[in-house]
Amino acid sequence: MKELKEKLSVQNQLSLFKESSKKDIPLAELLENKGLNYDNLRYRNYVNGFSHEEKSHPIEEYLQKSSGVPAVSFFTGAGGMDLGFEYAGFETIGSFENNELFCNTLRINNKKRPVFGPPDFSGDISRRDEIAEILTKKLGVKNSFEGVFHGGPPCQPFSIASNQRFRKEDGNFKRKGFEDEEKGNLLFDYLWLIEKFQPKAFVIENVSGLKDLDSDGQLYGSLKKLRKVGYKISDPQILNASYFGVPQNRLRLFIVGVRNSDQFQFPQISLFQTPCIDVFDRSSDGLMNNETRKHTANSVSRYMELDYGARDQLGRVDRLNPFLPSKTVIAGGTKGGGRSHLHPYIPRTLSVRESARLQTFPDNYIFNGSTARQFTQVGNAVPPKLAYSIANELIKLV
Questions:
Q1: What is the CB neighbour count within 10 angstroms for residue 277?
Q2: Hey, is 283 helix, strand or coil?
Q3: What is the pLDDT of residue 359?
Q4: How far apart are CA 231 and CA 233, in angstroms?
Q5: What is the per-residue DSSP string for 86-139?
Q6: CATH topology of domain 63-271+384-394
Q7: Disulfide engineering: 231 pairs with which of 16, 257, 356, 378, CB 3.0-4.6 Å?
Q8: Helix, strand or coil, per DSSP, at residue 53
Q9: Which value, in Å, is the radius of gyration of the alpha carbons in the chain?
Q10: Which one of the listed residues 155, 210, 213, 320 is annotated catalytic?
Q11: Domain boundaries along the sequence of the chain
Q12: Which tens digit of pLDDT belongs to each residue from 314-335?
């Protein structure tokens, strides 16, 4: 955090905005001409010298020795679940993902690990026989697999946030759940693979809305079949990531099954939620994926008047309160399709790297593609620290 003495005064800042408007010079260009950048800008309400005794630790400090227990991930996305399981000691032997951009991110960060997705594979879990053949012939996975399957089928059919992007009269506004022909049934394709290969354990991750949309008992019926072949399966559990070391309010649903073993016990929640202050006390200078949006003078002039936790109604962005968890990181980008939150100390939106820190990705993890699509990958991911909390309990049973 820049000291107050390194910030422009409120009056000088307002004068700068007027100059940008009067001379029709973009604010970013004007700042550069004066040897400044957005970090030199300030909120009107800017407090200097915060202190915080209980420091949160980055996930890099949680790395456990490999146990050799294999894990296969499905619907891998950018790899948040993979990371959490690996830090807990699991060995990822293969990942399945049907989005080529996400696959490229996985390959950049894991050059030796097989990633089954475009351009060489479909990565489409609905192609059951194709996926089963890859598991058998390329990964050596057989029935009664002594490892773990984990994955989060696409959550858009069950997500409130996803469907609220549309107008109420639009057919997309109502959550379709299992009625979504393209994505709603992928959960059952995943369950089919679990039933066929019977891994030692499996994890299903999704948005909390999944629990509410099983009104006809489809999911319950599928899990009942797995119970009959020897699985002890947890009741669906909704966890708030902020109680598991993630500096962000994020609700996720987990179902965990273990074959021929004790019942899985979910990790104990902490007494306090994790604030986001430590994310912004660490410098992100020189890191990859750290480009920030070049806001106009008009936008910054609105942002600078916000108090901690307040929302800019026009831009629909919120200034984060450093002593609270961040609001949920949303999949989006710098040019529409979503939005990031406002930095608590600088009147601008967050960079991809800052958002990735709120998700607890390690700083050396690289996101591929345009800035907008990097935001998509970060916002769609399971926080690695939350996945670690699940995996760290699961590894005791396998």
A1: 21
A2: coil
A3: 98
A4: 6
A5: HHTT-EEEEEE---HHHHHHHHHH-TTS-EE-TTTS---TT-HHHHHHHHHHTS
A6: Rossmann fold (3.40.50)
A7: 257
A8: coil
A9: 23
A10: 155
A11: 4-52+274-379, 63-271+384-394
A12: 999 999 999 999 999 987 544 4
* SS3 (DSSP) at 64: coil
Q: Helices in the chain by DSSP H: which ranges? A: 10-22, 27-33, 80-87, 100-109, 128-137, 160-163, 186-197, 218-228, 277-281, 297-303, 352-358, 371-380, 384-394
Look at the block and give the residue holding tokens 């996975």. Answer: 141
Pairing status of strand 70-74 against strand 91-96: parallel
* Separation of alpha carbons 189 and 218, rounded Å: 13
Two tokens, residue 4? 């107050």
Task: Assess whether 155 carries a catalytic annotation.
Answer: yes
pLDDT tens profile 20-76: 999 999 999 999 999 999 999 999 998 766 666 777 889 999 999 999 999 999 999
Residue with tokens 């001379």: 23
CATH 3.90.120 assigned to 4-52+274-379: yes
